[in-house]
Design goal:
mainly beta, 755 residues, 11-stranded parallel beta sheet, 0% helix
């Protein structure tokens, strides 16, 4: 066995450690690495020591010098019977067979540690370039390399079987293709493997698989690796399997690709590969990074393969702790489809199962994700959040809120470990929900959300796209439970942040309830403020099961003077505001509001009550069993109205006032007395009108509303002045000068017939 974990905590100053599994065959004199168990800035705390003695059962190891830092070896009780194994990994770096690069002693200067160390913050200012992780020895960063390459792919002319060797001082910085272990453009290499290797002090990755498939990498330990370590290169690579590997101190590098400035221990460019039972600790940035391009690049470039649509291979029982950024990151796009073809549009769930992440900045994060599912995960003591989603996309109309849609389920999330120091500054959110429809939370336990800076749920923000005043989507909740802290359930930041649909009552107290920010347009007989959901900038409310809410987003008003003004929504209960914003997730330079089914809202641009022609583009989302009436004040009766595709004559208006129970989608009505024009948006359609999108769970409607008062007979367009024929008569003016020229150059008083 090449690595194990501590069975008990090794305190600072200890000269002996105890292992969880005995390693009697580890050699006296061999070098081991003991992983940090500190916070996300503790990269320096992974320590190297030599073995001076080992017990007969292999469980007690005596070290060559005392430890400088504490290394945990405990089963932490989180609460409710749930535990977290907070144990430092211990790896044997020594092997009998060694491949070692040649050190140029001219570069071997001792360099003192950077006084302020390394800050992993995305926008942090670093105080020095080198030695951010303690004292170091300089080097020329020009090490050994092992390469397997066949002149023709898929011929198996190159085969590689590496077992239990040590590769040290390897890889060459600033040079692509010079890696410690490199499989280069071989195609299928079934039967080849890397087993039990030790790779440490590497200047350009650890194991690079390039244009090669079906390699087994297992029981390999790596330490102090510059740049992405277990690395898939072009995005064409498939069928490779990584099992029982350990990555310690994978560190940022400015001598390779831009991506290596924020490296990952496991860097996947094609999801059709397999990651099982791997562990990562003490890296500067990511544990796992699925960085998927639209098509493979480099020497494997082709437009016939689309990694972003390829189904996930296997992700099972992987762990990450004490990393600077996230345990798992899918960036930028991953929306797996059935079959994985470039034209496939049928979502297929990608299941990341049994991920364990602790003491990182974030546990798991996806940016633009399709049906990504996180199952049976344990996420604890992460600084900002356990799971954050930015946006769901390409889900179609059948996957949202179903077992085929995006979700987290059967998981445990702990804000902190009770016996472990944790930061009390800044917000600590359990799940940061994506700005899009379709996400579900099922059977998730939230533990220790009892501190003032904690909240179970919050909404995301996307720097450069939308950092505020976005949201409004529905999220489905069921089988939610709380242990030690259930009073801080939602962190709402503004009126239209989002709506939680409580399917079984576990989140709010009754099945079918809706939880959302309080608005003055709510029916007080159905909705009430609730302090459990009111820890953010606005108060939260719980509405009963008879209520339904949809997201309305709109822009492109017909009058430029409407821009930059807030929109007021008024009903029988009060008024709420939809603020204008330049940046939106949908409908940029526009507005977003949550609206309630069964209501009629008078929609008015602030300080613009009297408008003749009104137009805008809108989308209504989450319209299952939903109907709403929107009313505008106009100063005169319009001639034509558009709600759906075509402009319709005002004569087609309903003869009776609209009713959400009996009217249909697209119906409109004009109240001549009050000069009010109303239209209805609804899941209900007349038999002659085909629904544009339908599903038992998720409906949406695009509305290009227009109220038009015509200025020319029969609503003809304004004539083009450049194409009008010459006039054959002169206009009749009540007063005109005697010098006015008439047609045919006849002056006043002259006889036209005489000319």
């Amino acid at each position: 066995m090449t690595w194990t974990r501590l069975s008990s905590t090794a305190t600072a100053g200890s000269t002996q450690i105890e292992l969880e599994w005995g390693q009697a065959d580890w050699p006296v004199g061999g070098t081991i690495a003991i992983a940090t168990t500190g916070d996300r800035h503790s990269q320096i705390e992974t320590e190297l020591r030599n073995i001076t003695a080992i017990s007969n059962d292999g469980k007690k190891i005596t070290l060559s010098e005392p430890l400088e830092y504490e290394h945990l070896g405990v089963t932490e009780e989180l609460g409710g019977g749930h535990t977290l194994e907070m144990r430092a990994e211990v790896a044997l770096l020594s092997r009998n067979v060694r491949v070692v690069g040649s050190r140029d002693i001219q570069w071997s200067d001792e360099i003192e540690a950077c006084p302020d160390g390394f800050d992993t913050g995305e926008f942090a200012t670093q105080t020095c370039f080198q030695d951010r992780f303690g004292d170091e020895i300089g080097s020329d960063q020009f090490g050994a390399q092992i390469m397997f390459h066949a002149p023709i792919r898929d011929t198996k002319l190159a085969r590689g079987k590496l077992s239990y060797i040590e590769v040290n001082y390897a890889g060459q910085a600033f040079r692509l293709g010079r890696y410690p272990v490199h499989f280069h453009l071989n195609g299928d290499m079934s039967g080849s493997y890397v087993k039990g290797l030790s790779i440490h002090e590497a200047f350009n990755r650890a194991i690079n698989i390039h244009g090669t498939h079906n390699i087994l990498v297992e029981h390999t330990v790596i330490y102090n690796i510059m740049g992405g370590a277990f690395f898939l290169e072009d995005g064409i690579e498939t069928g490779n399997r990584y099992r029982y590997n350990l990555a310690l101190f994978v560190r940022a590098s400015s001598s390779l690709l831009n991506d290596d400035i924020t490296p990952a221990a496991f860097w996947a460019t094609n999801p059709d590969n397999h990651y099982e039972h791997n562990a990562v600790a003490g890296g500067t940035h990511f544990g796992f990074w699925y960085r998927l391009l639209e098509h493979p690049e480099g020497m494997s470039a082709t437009t016939s393969v689309c990694p972003r649509r390829v189904p996930l291979g296997t992700s099972y029982n992987n762990s990450v702790h004490s990393n600077g950024w996230f345990g798992l990151w899918t960036f930028q796009d991953y929306y797996p489809m059935v079959g994985g073809g470039c034209d496939s549009t049928d979502p297929e769930p990608a299941v990341f199962e049994k991920f364990i992440v602790w003491n990182c900045e974030k546990g798991l994060e996806f940016v633009n994700g399709g049906s990504l599912q996180f199952v049976d995960c344990l996420l604890a003591n992460n600084k900002l959040t356990a799971l954050e989603g930015k946006k769901n996309m390409l889900l179609g109309v059948e996957a949202p809120y179903t077992d085929r849609g995006p979700m987290i389920r059967d998981s445990v999330i702990a804000a902190y470990a009770p016996n472990y120091p944790h930061s009390s500054g800044g917000k600590r959110i359990g799940i940061v929900l994506p700005w899009s429809a379709g996400f579900s939370v099922k059977n998730v336990k939230f533990i220790n959300f009892d501190e003032s800076n904690a909240a179970v749920f919050g909404m995301t923000d996307i720097q450069g796209t939308c950092s505020e005043l976005c949201g409004g989507w529905n999220y489905h909740m069921e089988k939610i439970s709380f242990i030690n802290g259930d009073q801080q359930r939602s962190n709402f930041r503004w009126l239209h942040d989002g709506v939680f649909v409580d399917l079984d009552g576990s989140y709010s107290g009754a099945a079918g309830n809706k939880v959302l920010p309080w608005m003055d347009t709510m029916d007080p007989s159905k909705c009430a403020k609730d302090y459990r959901f009111s820890i953010g900038a606005v108060e939260g409310a719980v509405c009963d099961r008879t209520t339904k809410f949809a997201r309305l987003s709109f822009n492109n008003p017909g009058l430029s003077s409407m821009l930059f003004k807030n929109v007021l929504f008024t009903n029988d209960f009060g008024t709420h505001i939809a603020p204008f914003a330049n940046k939106r997730m949908t409908h940029e330079t526009g507005w977003t509001s949550v609206v309630e089914s069964g209501q009629e809202y008078k929609m008015v641009w602030e300080n613009m009550e009297h408008i003749v022609n009104i137009s805008y583009s809108a989308i209504f989302e989450d319209l299952e069993d939903f109907s709403v009436i929107i009313t505008h004040n106009v100063i005169t009766k319009p001639d034509r109205v558009r709600v759906q595709e075509e402009l319709r004559d005002i004569a087609d208006a309903s003869s009776n006032k609209l009713n959400t129970d009996s009217s249909y989608h697209g119906d409109f009505y004009f109240n001549d007395n009050d000069k009010e024009l109303s239209y209805m948006v609804s899941y209900k359609r007349r038999a002659s009108r085909k629904r544009r999108s339908s599903n038992a769970e998720y409906l949406f409607e695009n509305v290009n509303f227009e109220s038009q008062k015509c200025y020319y007979p029969d609503c003809q367009s304004q004539p083009d002045q450049n194409t009008l024929p010459p006039s054959t008569s002169y206009p009749e003016f009540s007063i005109r000068p005697n010098t006015t020229i008439r047609p045919n150059n006849v002056l006043p008083g002259e006889d036209e017939d005489a000319n």
